[in-house]
Amino acid sequence: MSETGQAHTKQFVMMIEINGEKFQASGRSKKLAKTRLAQSVLAKKFDIHMTAQPETQPVGGEVLLPPEIADSVSRLVLEKFNTLTDDGQSTYARKKVLAGIVMTRETVDEFSEVICIATGTKCISGEYMSNQGLCVNDCHAEILARRCLIRYLYQQLELHLDPSTAETSIFAKKPNSGFQLKPEIQFHLYISTSPCGDARIFSPHEKDENPNGSLDEHQNRKSRGVLRTKIESGEGTIPVRGQGVVQTWDGVLQGERLLTMSCSDKLCKWNALGIQGALLSHFVDPVYLSSIIVGSLYHGEHMTRAMYGRVEALEGLLSAPYKVNKPLLSGITSPISRHPSKTPGYSVNWITGNTGLEVLSCTTGKQEDGKASHISKQSMYQAFNKLWGHLPTIINLGEPLKPFKLYSEAKTAATYYQLAKQDLYRSFSSNDLGSWIKKPLEQDEFELVPTS
């Protein structure tokens, strides 16, 4: 059907049509692509699975979803990325991790849209921290994809500023105050490999031989479920050590490593608090993912624990509308092959409606010309202020609404969100999983920067 990528990262795509139904698979060689295509047909048409290990099977999902959704979401994201990178020929097609979010309305195939795309596997260097909210601290693909989705949610709320466009928004006005996602809308996150941190701490080619199914004394097993931090300017994660670690601005500038929570931990957080963040919580009920699809290194047991299993004790304790969200977790029929390569020093992101990719330096967290990203904290704060005082909020704070001076003040004022976050952090600590490590507080104490 097609081939994409550069010589050392070629991907061959094969497709077959049977009685009007199309099947597609990819691989690093034509032979592998054909094999995976055959496996896909056998699984869908005859329910014959060539990899029947329990750990490779989909897990859960609060909303009933068709079994082929994982492959559909994966295909849509890969196709969009190939389109944006000229079928892999663009300078910025090189990547280690790709993530994207697909929005569906009622059914997957007929009403699906790729909302955003991102690549990246690094965090900024501590010396490039911004006290004006101008840099993106975490350039891992799934983190950027979520920030892009937040930007999209702001755009959808802006439609309510004009009565003539309000009905086209994915948000519906609540009877009393604020907004909620329309019931037919679902978001599906695709990541080309399991998220760094707890979900990826296992050996993919070794089985647990413990007949009782209990955890053994291996060090990796002891640390399962614990919070982990990414390595500044590098890759991989390390467990959080000790309680109450406080990062300081001057300490980081002097040489202390800038610590960033792992992607597994952040995804777990989103499954409790929603993906909308604190600022949007002033206007909307929590927005949760319906599925998380992993392109490689998928293990059902480890993904379940990392994504929500370790905070299940919060069920019934979080005040509505917050909850422990349990999205569908799944690999894909044709897992992506591992190919060692040098990590690019850049990340890219795209949001529906944009003409091309935005390129960010993973070292500085800014565009290559030094400009702030459209998904930076400063940019999000500007989008928030366009709505503040013009749209109804979840909590009635009185009229007229006074503008916030600092970004940190706006976040703190999202009372219900902050209470749920405190419950989540206490749950991690009380279960000996470690303490959530925050960035230096000066990072959020900034005002709006006038736009030119």
Overview of this structure, please?
The structure is a single chain. The protein is α+β, with helices and mostly antiparallel strands. It is built from 11 helices and 17 strands. The chain has helices at residues 30-46, 69-84, 141-158, 219-222, 249-254, 263-273, 277-280, 300-307, 377-387, 407-412, 415-430; strands at residues 2-4, 11-18, 21-27, 98-105, 107-119, 121-123, 138-140, 171-173, 179-181, 185-191, 228-230, 237-239, 260-261, 291-294, 328-330, 346-351, 358-361. The strands form 5 sheets. A 7-stranded mixed β-sheet has the order 15-14-10-4-5-16-17, with helices on both faces. Strands 1-2-3 form a 3-stranded antiparallel β-sheet, with helices on one face. A 3-stranded antiparallel β-sheet has the order 12-11-13. Strand 11 and strand 12 (237-239) form a beta hairpin. Helix 3 runs parallel beside helix 9. The chain is globular, with a radius of gyration of 22 Å.
Please render the helix and strand layout as text.
Elements: E1 2-4, E2 11-18, E3 21-27, H1 30-46, H2 69-84, E4 98-105, E5 107-119, E6 121-123, E7 138-140, H3 141-158, E8 171-173, E9 179-181, E10 185-191, H4 219-222, E11 228-230, E12 237-239, H5 249-254, E13 260-261, H6 263-273, H7 277-280, E14 291-294, H8 300-307, E15 328-330, E16 346-351, E17 358-361, H9 377-387, H10 407-412, H11 415-430
